[in-house]
Design brief:
Layout: H1 7-27, H2 31-56, H3 62-92
Amino acid sequence: MINGVSIYEILTLTSIMFFIGVYGFFTRKNLIAMLVSVELILNSAAVNFVIINKYMFPGKLGGDIFSIFIIAVAAAETALALAIIINLYRLIMSVKTKDLETMKY
């Protein structure tokens, strides 16, 4: 237990976060909402790395280092995705996924 919270409660919370992110990614039509859903998925994975590392290898920092790497990749991915979304908005004045079909041709 970490401060009175068991590993099962934390893993249940991160599983719920992960599936909310997956649901949001597949059901949203807005590119920014889809980006937020991907961030939620990545954050749940980072928390899982930290918690599992804390319980399996209490004195080592392997999970923490993986989490920092995930956070860095998520920040870079967010910056790149927002730049792409801003450029798409300038071109077609919409961030809806159905409006992006016009860019195929």
